[in-house]
Amino acid sequence: MFRLGELMLGVPSQNVREVTRMGPMTPLPRMVASVLGVVGHRGEVLPVVDLLRFLGVGELKVTPRARIFIGVAGNLSAAFLADAVVGLRKVFTADIWPAPVTGQVPAELLLGIVTTDREGEGAINLLNLTRVLQSARARAVAR
Amino acid sequence: MTPTVDILLFEVAGVRFAADASQVMRIDRPLEEPSVGAPLGVPHHGRRALIFYSEGGELRRLDIDKVSGVRSVAIESLRRLPPPARVGEVPIGAWLDGDDAVLLVDLARMA
Q1: Chain A residue set in contact with B, beta carbons under 8 Å
Q2: Which of A30, A131, A138, B33 is the most buried if burial means most Cβ atoms within 10 Å?
């Protein structure tokens, strides 16, 4: 689970390779706004995605406290910027509700919504990272 | 023995780029040759220019801020750009200088 602005988001743990600090980022010329640049990480070049811009609900500021999580789906991978990584939660599939079509996050990018009793967490938007990565790729190619 | 390639490092608008050094005919002031514009961003002052041949065989220039030097780097330190970061044809990859990714550009395709 991680926090982006006022959004609480979750990603299935099998889609997360690593959580780390933000390293030196290289901006990309003429790139879609949601891809901030690339970083070198363990011998790999990864695009850095601002999910708030990608979802069209704001933008993140890159601060020294910013964290990235390395998301993977099939042969696609990217570094996603986060304000804070909250931690790992076990969620029962029976507790995942269908994504509302009128929510802040487009329903087609979600696996569903999970509500928790923990204070300050509220509803967690569970991201479909495969679709997010495929969509990010399609947007970059279409530009 | 690891194969190497010579890359020319330069800066545009505070961002470091690299190009295959064999593509660069000369480094000059931005004077006569037709410019390719600012595909890598608008230079802060643009007092230097890389002169190169386009794919069509014509001399072109790219205005830049600074030449940082030529490095002989191992081919295995070069990477393709990952799909969500691959846009257009100019940045063709990156040279990993430690964890610092320096964008590798194809000058000939800029024209």
Answers
A1: 23-24, 26-32, 35, 37-41, 43-47, 49, 76-78, 133, 136-137, 140-141, 143
A2: B33
Q: With CB atoms and an 8 Å threshold, state whether B82 touches A47.
A: yes
- In sequence order, the 6+-apart residues with CB closer than 8 A to the CB of B21 are B6, B7, B8, B70
Are B87 and A49 a contacting pair at CB < 8 A? no
pLDDT surpasses 70 at A120: no
User: Measured between CA atoms, how close is B110 to chain A, in angstroms?
Assistant: 13
Q: Is the pLDDT of residue A22 over 80?
A: yes
* Cα Rg of chain A (Å, integer): 15
Locate A41 and state its tokens. Answer: 């990480």
Contact A49 B103 (CB under 8 A): no
What are B69-103's pLDDT values in tens digits? 999 999 988 998 887 776 666 778 899 988 889 99
pLDDT tens across A71-106, in order? 999 888 999 998 888 888 888 888 898 888 777 788
The pairs formed by A84-93 with CB atoms below 8 angstroms and a separation of 24 or more are A84/A2, A84/A3, A85/A1, A85/A2, A85/A3, A85/A19, A86/A1, A86/A2, A86/A3, A86/A8, A86/A121, A87/A1, A88/A1, A88/A13, A89/A1, A89/A10, A89/A116, A89/A124, A91/A10, A91/A126
Average pLDDT over residues A113-119: 77
How high is the ipTM of this complex? Answer: 0.79
